Amino acid sequence: MPTIKKASFLSENTPLSRKAIISLKTKAATKRTWPEIYADWLADSFGTITFFVLNAILFLIWMFFNSGIFKNLPLFDPFPFSFLTMAVSLEAIFLSIIVLISQNRAAKVDELRQEIDLQLDIISEQEITKIMEMLAKIMEHNHLDISDDPVLKQMLKPVNTKKIEDDLNKQI
């Protein structure tokens, strides 16, 4: 069996395998505290048509029984329904907090996902540049003149990620 000669254009630092990236959402879900689990469950439960309809029915029943239609029934919250207004306001405050807790957790997962995307983009750029170098060497080996192609020359230069990062930091 012939021995395979390592190509000189491959860097010693080129990783030959990649680790599988486990879903960030799954990882984050396993690290949630019980209040976060409860907040997510509440946000999922309250963000439904069923919850909306139940609230609407409850409010209508409340107003109906406190409207004075039934003379024998004492009014526990007469018009303008001050107690109902307070209860609805408190419900809105708690629902807002629950939604914010869930959104903050989702934002953290999204930030991690964006960071991984950036890292993969950088790796992909390096790999594409290496492939272009290999193609240029093949073209030169086949005596094809590529010296007058300024676009190719620019593409063969590695992207200066530090400069991009500095430019972005100036915009922040």
What does this structure look like?
- With 172 residues, the protein is mainly alpha-helical.
- It has one domain (30-171).
- The protein is 67% helix and 0% strand.
- It has 6 helices and no strands.
- The longest helix has 60 residues, at 82-141.
- It is rod-shaped and about 105 Å long.
- Mean pLDDT is 82; it is low at 13-20.
Summarize the structure.
This protein has 172 residues and is mainly alpha-helical.
- Taking pLDDT < 50 over at least 5 consecutive residues as the criterion, the unreliable ranges are 13-20
Q: Describe the largest sheet.
A: none
Mean pLDDT: 82
Q: How far apart, in Å, are the first and last alpha carbons? A: 58 Å
The overall strand count is 0
Number of domains: 1
Fraction of residues in β-strands: under 5%
Residues in helix, % = 55-70%
Content-based structural category: mainly alpha
What gyration radius follows from the Cα positions, in whole Å? 31 Å
Shape descriptor reads: rod-shaped
Order of helices and strands: HHHHHH
The count of helical stretches stands at 6
Question: Main attributes?
Answer:
mainly alpha; 6 helices; transmembrane; transmembrane helix; rod-shaped; about 170 residues; DUF1003 domain-containing protein; DUF1003
